[in-house]
Amino acid sequence: MRNPLRRLEKLLKRERDELLVGNIQGALALLDEKERLVRDLENSQPEGTELQKIQTEAARNLDLIKAAWNGITAARSRIEVAQSTPSLRTYGADGHSSEVSGRKNGLERRA
């Protein structure tokens, strides 16, 4: 398959498949080939409708990448909050202090 447009179309499909299953590393591994195909495509001057299809697929993949990034950022924030929960120092009837950790043994799951 020598047509750079068709090769890029297949590559964007593979990238989408990797992103949909959460394999960000797999999607990143396609980056060099994607850049090369875009350069090849610039030299071949495809028709407008063909190019628009590629642009639509690339934009859809970009939305998936942004969603993955937002998910990673949200997970990181939840982990940081869980790890930074302060402890509570209390004193018993005997006057001795004890520390009660504010941490739970797991992450709280929300619906």
UniProtKB/TrEMBL annotation:
Compositional bias per record (Basic and acidic residues), positions renumbered to this chain: 101-111
Top-level taxon of origin: Bacteria
Region feature (Disordered): 83-111
Protein name (Swiss-Prot/TrEMBL): FlgN protein
Natural source organism: Palleronia abyssalis
